[in-house]
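Researcher: Here's a chain I'd like modeled. Treat it as a single chain, no partners, no ligands.
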Amino acid sequence: MTVTADTWQARAALCELLALSFRYPDDVLVGAIASGEWGEAAEEIAGALGLAWPADGAPGAAEAAAMDDPDELKHALRAEATRLFVGAPEPLCSPYEGVWRAADDGVQALLFVNPHSMDVERFCKACGLGRPEGTNEPLDHVATEFELLEYLALRAAVDAAGEPADDVDAGEPGDVVASADLPGGSPAAAYDQFMDEHVRTWAPRFADKAADEARLGFYPQAGSLLKAFVAA
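Model: Modeled as a single isolated chain. Structure tokens:
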């Protein structure tokens, strides 16, 4: 089945929204939740993609309504993200693929140097993307994986629209890799391959665990959106 440029654009937009949702909360995410824009965007994109995602009200709306000060909402979201995804000594819900896949393999999880994390890094490099300058975070973080999918979906949209490949910014750092040199030989094939070999193997379980452990309503809603998207 041929996927249209509009569908690829919608996929890219949803990947961008999911990446924003599972990064450490910043002012952009706080503002989107407090204003209702997150929920509106999620419903619009889910509708465009035909996802089975019945949103029960705007995510985080209850928390936002109870907090007159946006700084209070940001503090609550950051505390929750820290409790869930950072933790001490371990997070309640690791945001790294390698940790989940190591558990599947019955071995100790080592960030950076486990085979699954290393495969994600190789895949990113094959797509012309690398670790942003000044950071030292494994590339198999759930948000980073969705940023990669966003980039590939945008490249696929350009191909579907018949536009020059260099119209898409490769992100940082890296160069635009010719479509034929991407994994699978095209942006669409690379997207499908990464979704099948990486995202689908662990992200739905991550979403379930985050929902089970969450004390705020936002992460169960974001997790349900992630699951609906990956399932489709």
